[in-house]
Design a protein that fits this description.
Chain lengths: 145, 292
């Protein structure tokens, strides 16, 4: 799978993003790391140009409630409904529902094993084979738990 | 928008739809034979050099310069894949801080186990970009071994990048890359010792026939970038180098074909068990050339 690991906004901490990127590489995926401080528009352009099947957004700054829904909306506006969006970092429980509502399929918090996001991608792959919804604009209520 | 048929993907890409372009490149990368017309000769710059020389950062400067001058720049960055899992961490994009990803087209390409070879369809990908109106196509590849260097032979203008703490560019001589390089950029001119490094590169080249010019740049401060841009724009494909380039790309294609041969693993096994000599192995593969 081609996966973009993205850092959005002014958040400058990317240790977690890099560890996840490496773990996904070891899981056999082609992982593209965006580098720090990308705008939502840039992240969507990167996913489009790289023809990525999934975008993982790492966020620790508290700006998730603004940045992530923007990315999801832009993806749909570009017609990239089939792209899977997942999130890792510090997301308080109270903020998770609205993120799932805007199309995020998985949220990985502190303490997550690196194997979990890889299993998530495997699950996404299986669902794609079965033509079940996994994308940001494909609807349905499926989410990783 | 029609994203399923090959011809509409190319038509859409020509009309400026980057999503179609991306999907087209994926198909080419996955091994589909797609007919791309040849109506113009592509401007293709290959950039290589040792790890840490600053290739990506320098390309970022070049892309940003051309993009600000309303030229359409596309970058294909080739990175190695893990021989064990087949996965790849494609990190060159993270160095792109000046050029804007909404303007510059950047595509990360995994070598997909094609060590010692040119990734699947790289030439067709360049063609597709050029035919869809990308004025300048830049290929980036790390220059650590002969195989990685070979990727660069698909370009018609070649820039070698070296840094003051390295001097590794002279290693390139062994891989035959100096024969095809048009220009050498000594990067990190902001660091102390860079003048000496540049001089040692020039000294090392003084024994070569017709050595490429060496210029000093700093991707960090932007010093020397204008000069580099002018030099690159003035470069015409050097026909004298086309033979050397053709040799490298042919040999590289042959190596990948040999490695993809259904006999390859068996022959390697027999040689490793001392059942046959390498020469006999080569002969067995040659007698099956039609099937390679």
């Amino acid at each position: 799978m081609r996966v973009v690991i993205a850092k959005a906004g002014l958040d400058g901490h990317d240790r977690g993003a890099k560890i996840i990127a490496r773990a996904m590489r070891d899981g056999g995926h082609e992982v593209i790391y965006t580098g720090l401080r990308r705008t939502p528009e840039q992240i969507v352009a990167i996913a489009r140009d790289e023809d990525a099947s999934a975008i993982g957004i790492s966020t620790l700054s508290g700006a998730h409630a603004r940045l992530i829904p923007t990315i999801c909306q832009l993806l749909r506006a570009e017609g990239m409904d089939e792209v899977t969006v997942f999130v890792g970092g510090i997301i308080p429980d109270i903020d998770r529902g609205p993120l799932y509502d805007c199309g995020v399929r998985a949220i990985f918090g502190p303490g997550t094993s690196v194997n979990d996001p890889i299993r998530f991608l495997e699950n996404v792959n299986e669902r794609i084979q079965q033509k079940l919804p996994v994308g940001v604009g494909q609807g349905g209520t499926w989410r990783w738990s | 928008m029609e994203l399923n048929s090959r011809s509409s993907l190319f038509e859409n890409a020509k009309n400026g739809d980057r999503r179609s372009l991306a999907k087209l490149l994926t198909r080419i990368e996955n091994g589909e034979e797609i007919d791309i017309p040849t109506t113009k000769s592509a401007w293709v710059l290959g950039v290589t050099g040792p790890p840490g020389a600053g290739k990506s950062t320098l390309i970022d400067r070049l892309a940003s310069h051309w993009s600000e001058n309303k030229q359409r720049v596309a970058i294909l960055a080739v990175d190695p894949s893990s021989p064990i899992t087949g996965g790849a961490l494609l990190g060159d994009r993270a160095r792109m801080v000046h050029s804007n990803p909404t303007q510059v087209y950047f595509r990360s390409i995994s070598a997909r186990g094609n060590h010692g070879g040119i990734p699947n369809g790289l030439e067709a990908m360049i063609q597709a970009l050029s035919e869809s109106g990308w004025d300048r196509v830049i290929i980036e590849t790390v220059g650590v071994g002969q195989g990685e260097f070979a990727v660069i032979s698909v370009a018609n203008r070649i820039l070698l990048v070296d840094g003051p703490d390295r001097g590794d560019v002279l290693q390139a001589e062994k891989a035959g890359i100096l024969e095809i390089a048009d220009l050498i950029a000594c990067n990190k001119s902001d660091l102390p010792g860079s003048l000496n490094a540049m001089k040692s590169v020039e000294d090392g080249l003084s024994y070569s026939d017709n050595p490429p010019p060496v210029i000093s740049v700093s991707s960090l401060t932007g010093d020397g970038i204008e000069n580099l841009v002018h030099r690159l724009e003035a470069l015409e494909p050097d026909l004298g180098k086309s033979t050397a380039r053709a040799k490298i790309s042919l040999e590289s294609v042959m190596i990948s074909r040999i490695r993809r041969s259904p006999l390859y693993d068996d022959v390697v096994h027999d040689i490793s068990q001392n059942k046959i000599t390498s020469k006999q192995g080569a002969e067995r593969m040659e007698s099956n050339y039609g099937r390679i």
